[in-house]
Every structure is written in C-alpha cells, then in structure tokens.
Design goal:
The protein is α+β, with helices and mostly antiparallel strands. Helices cover about 25% and strands about 40% of the residues.
Length: about 70
Amino acid sequence: MIEQAIQKKTAVHVILAETSFTGDILKHDAIRQQIIIKNFSKNVTRIIRISDIKRLRFVPSTVQKAQKSLFKKE
C-alpha cells in the first residue's frame, strides 16, 4: 500500500498508537523500515516506523485537492 501511494502520488492518513498524521509520502526506506511523510501545508515532516503504524488509508482525492488548495491560498 505504501508503494502504491508513492506511485500514484496519493496522500495517506496514518494512524499510530497515540496520534495520527495525514500527508504525502516522500520516501519509503525499506532498509530502516520507515516512511517519511510531509503534511499538506508542507511545514511538518515526520519520520514514521512501519512497525508503529496501526492503520494506513488513502485520503480521498476530493479531500486531498481541497486541503492542498486551502494551503496554497494562505
């Protein structure tokens, strides 16, 4: 699913044990077993270990477009 999100350039919503994060996957490091995600406003980047992910879902394209256009205006 991670590779599919990178190829399709689809945003994801990642649910962890105590928090969640939504954004675009910039990189998947298979050796270190982690992904690097940048949020829609492009001001927060987070490194997440694959083992910490409880759930990963694609963000619907309509939500992705709305969020990206919202942050472009600001």
